[in-house]
């Protein structure tokens, strides 16, 4: 009976040691799990912050593109108006040449002013159109970035 008791106590001690070892492993795994959860939460927050930043940039670029579009439209209207004025000045110039109007110098001056205005508008129109194209390229880049983020997010979810 004493031998059996000693044997059982020995087994109980071994089981207690094994139980403590398992409890230690369990605590370590729980700690590692908690660390992984914290890491994943931080990554999710970072990703969310990046998405918000990209969305803000997209909104800003959209506003710029709309502004550039409006500016281009305005410049096109100005261009059309100046072309009409130029046509009128040319008509007046032709009339002056045929002797039906005032001095040739005044007509030449008016035509030069109209031409300068027209060239200014054309230069401004080109600049606005370039800005519009640049804004469209930026929007395309942001759209591609958002697609990448979706793929990263899908891959992250598949890995879990």
Automatic annotation (TrEMBL):
GO terms for biological process: positive regulation of cilium assembly; positive regulation of protein localization to cilium; regulation of cytokinesis. The keyword Mitochondrion does not apply. Signal peptide: none annotated. Keywords: Coiled coil. It comes from the Eukaryota. The keyword Kinase does not apply. Residues 19-92 form a coiled coil. One of its GO terms (cellular component) is ciliary basal body. Belongs to the ENTR1 family. PANTHER family: ENDOSOME-ASSOCIATED TRAFFICKING REGULATOR 1, ENDOSOME-ASSOCIATED-TRAFFICKING REGULATOR 1. This is Endosome-associated-trafficking regulator 1. It comes from Pterocles burchelli. The gene is Sdccag3_1.
């Amino acid at each position: 009976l004493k031998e059996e008791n000693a044997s059982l106590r020995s087994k109980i001690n071994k089981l207690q040691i094994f139980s403590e070892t398992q409890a230690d492993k369990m605590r370590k795994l729980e700690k590692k799990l908690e660390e992984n959860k914290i890491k994943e939460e931080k990554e999710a927050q970072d990703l969310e912050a990046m998405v918000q930043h990209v969305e803000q940039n997209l909104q800003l670029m959209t506003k710029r593109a709309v502004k550039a579009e409006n500016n281009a439209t305005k410049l096109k209207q100005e261009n059309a108006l100046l072309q009409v004025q130029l046509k009128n000045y040319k008509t007046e110039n032709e009339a002056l040449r045929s002797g039906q109007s005032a001095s040739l110098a005044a007509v030449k001056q008016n035509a030069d002013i109209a031409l300068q205005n027209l060239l200014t508008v054309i230069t401004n129109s080109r600049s606005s159109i370039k800005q519009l194209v640049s804004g469209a390229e930026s929007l395309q880049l942001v759209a591609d970035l958002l697609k990448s983020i979706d793929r990263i997010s899908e891959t992250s979810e598949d890995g879990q």
